Fold:
Amino acid sequence: MNISFADISLGKSGALALVVAEGTTLAGSAAELDRKTGGAIKRAMKASSFSGKSGSVLELLAPHGVAASRILLLGVGKLADISANTLETVGGELVGRLERAKETAASIIVDGIQSGKLSAGDAAARVAFGAKLRSYRFDKYKTKKKDETTALKTLSVATKAATVARKSYSTLEKIADGMFLTRDLVNEPPNVLFPAEFAKRAKALTKVGVKVEVLGEAQMKKLGMGSLLGVGQGSVRESQLVVMRWNGGKVGDKPVAFVGKGVCFDTGGISLKPPAGMEDMKGDMGGAACVTGLMHALAARKAKVNAVGVIGVVENMPDGNAQRPGDIVTSMSGQTIEIINTDAEGRLVLADALHYTEKRFQPKFIVDLATLTGAIMIALGKEYAGLFSNDDKLSKQLSDAGEAEHEKVWRMPMGPAYDKQINSQFADMKNTGGRDGGSITAAQFLQRFVKDTKWAHLDIAGTAMASPQTAINHSWGSGWGVRLLNRLVADNYEG
Ligand code: BES
Ligand code: MN
Ligand code: ZN
Structure:
């Protein structure tokens, strides 16, 4: 979808939308539009008791006096309560409705919409951002074009503050591009997106200025990454470790680090999963996809930060050469792990990726993301991701960023009593701690691979994919986490 910002003009064809705040009378361009339609807008508002309440919509078809095919009034509630999020929702709803109505071009007037927190230009940019996020489609594998909806091709956002809006949107658009990359990676089928292909797509970030290194199995073996390599040993696809670096901060300034679980397909391995829903395990690389999308966003918007993204990318398959329950592997940290369940593979991948990241970069902090446990959905559903951390300040920063971006995280407990559950009688630890507190013992496992760095782990099994549809997301792969972490960086670690 092509989005542009223009000064307000009412003469356009296609659909015309108008953002209306509750308790305001139609003024300025809205009043002018009403006049042009011979007062039809005010009459319709009265007849339907439309007052601009948040989420309310009023539609006038083929209105007299203007070229538009329809006029949509979109309520945003009281001006004082308006947030960036309300406006994104309006932009998303608009695209959803127009695509169902098979409109291909539209303009939306965002006039007089501002509050203490949000300037008129920022408000227009947020509407555009919501529209952009909703416009995402992943239909490249459909050869017979479905006809329920058509794509909205152009959206013109009409505002008196077009210059500010354009500038503000240019940053948001880059974040959206990062989210779209994440969504694409998660949505791709596992026969297409295997580890080497994922690495290739990460390599493409070079074009936005990210330095990308790809380590194959031979290099990882030299580094002693027995934990990660064990997971991929039953697959004919080569395991990969991808290191992405964006240096937008001061030279010599320690980087912030993000680590992602990239299991391109998780069959469970020898501890094979049951068939129902197994196809969803193509999304088990959601953590790695988020890190990749985030690195894209940071680099594209030239964030003033040094950031590294490290992703362990593997495929977990049953095979004659696959890892067995009972096997003991040695991680890069030197710690040994007894494999109890080959389906608890994400933590094995992250163990080496975390240790490598801490040792090589000594970052300010590490945030890892992983579709790690089914148990996190039992605990939190799909509204919150689980947050586990050794640092209160980093936790608070993540919680605040999550509230602001509507990608919420909920801190879960950790401690020595949970840690005991993963002691093994044969090795330093085992890779599962039983049913009780399954997400927590998984986090305890990860913590054993972070020595003295501030660290947070986000269990995104419930939020990265198949999460409830919203006004700004109808994609299976949600792109969750890019906004959250971009905000974490922007608010606390830039400049
Ligand atoms: N990738 C899964 C977790 C998962 C499940 C993500 C459903 C998204 C949706 C992970 O590798 C896994 O299999 N975890 C096991 C751990 C258990 C064997 C200790 C689980 O959650 O059952
Ligand atoms: Mn698994
Ligand atoms: Zn998994």
